[in-house]
């Protein structure tokens, strides 16, 4: 019944979504020993806090993460509605984002990747709206700066610079100045960071920031066998999305098709970007949740058999709750 309920677009849905996010995060209270330490990336952490970590209480960590997740889901839903990616406005994107972002236990705790999703959603909206602009050099410069800022929070976010060039290839005719400006924006932030390291006479530490690209180290990227049961309904939903998209694809306007192509490359880049960090863990996958949430909400918006889509969502919620609590 949730799909039918959230297919409407009413203000009361906002409060219900926040409540759902808090309910789905309850599993975090049963696993206080699994709370990982929160680190800033070396670029900022070593400069400002000398590599120190931050630890929050379990209650604060879980509740704060749930509220951030709900906020990001509503932010993403607003983007999808304003870009008119679907046939009609609804709150399905926010619902699916919250459900997916609460499906695995590490997702219930604060992480740099989760914080970066705010920047991901913001940049996605700016990229999709690119086709409406006559000049995008200023936009590309701003997005290059945002990419650098995101990488200071979570270094694999640096892969988004490639997405900016892919977006230019998809939406714009070639102009070398538009391709150079995002790189200039990104490098300007790192130049300022370099100046700060030079000021403190720690130049060698600055170049250590990029050593993790050539020497990636995977630690704690394991998924319990039970977690595969959580991922199965999500993967099934993606399969149903592909089938639905195939039926609707050529009925959509060209810009909608290009937007879904951009989403695919974003998902691919976030999966590949795991080589850009020496602190890789399963929380990295949460970068993919905005794209997956849009994919699934597209299917749930166009699905016609209530027994199928309501059952699928119920299984996703039940599996996430059961395996995060157990």
Automatic annotation (TrEMBL):
Keywords linked to the UniProt accession: Membrane, Transmembrane, Transmembrane helix
- This protein's source sits in the domain of life called Bacteria
Keyword Transmembrane helix on this protein? yes
Which regions span the lipid bilayer? 12-40, 60-80, 92-125, 145-171, 183-200, 228-247, 259-276, 282-300, 307-325
Q: What is this protein called?
A: Beta-carotene 15,15'-monooxygenase
Species source reads Candidatus Sphingobacterium stercoripullorum
